[in-house]
Amino acid sequence: AGNMGLVPADEEFLKELRVLCDEHGALLIFDEVMSGFRASLTGYQGIGSVKPDVVTLGKVIGAGMPVGAFGTRKEIMAELSPEGPIYQAGTLSGNPVAMAAGLTSLKKLKSNPDVYATLEKRALRLMEGFKEAADALNVPMVTNVRGSMFGFYFSDKVVKNFDDALENDSELFGKFHGKMLEKGVYLACSSYETGFISTATSDEMIEEAIVAAKESLEEIMA
Hints:
The chain is of the alpha+beta class. The protein contains 7 helices and 6 strands.
């Protein structure tokens, strides 16, 4: 999940979903609008063992242009018009500008697959630094990373679902966000948003953000 902070998928939960869908003849759909081309070149399904029947995509696939997409097996896609009876259309479907931008971006990612290891390394370092700063002041914090995606909570409980996420200290997050802004680090303004590392984010920027986090927490807890 990416809209309650970053909550990585539980592999055992997904396995049970796969079993239930197969038992009842239902399609298993993965929403990879956020994780597609961020968790890995092939999204979360590229690093997990459970494979969906349908996947939805957006954001990165359009390289900043407004676009959404979905993919599935050939026999399911054949049910859509004009080949099949299910009508599907949209005003901007196949917009040439969005398609050109997205295709160019995906070609760049495909030609440089090692970029994901670099992005994850930087995301891990950022969260490691935040956690070290919090631990030094006995401030509870849990962190998560998947590929270029990262998230943190001011909580001492491992976050596995929305109820867990609600236990985040939102007041402390607000103070932390404000202090980080003062120091030139712009985090998402809600603790329920996921952060993303881009290829423009350097190792030096990561270290600067860690220093800012340490100073911010020290000022808050003083």
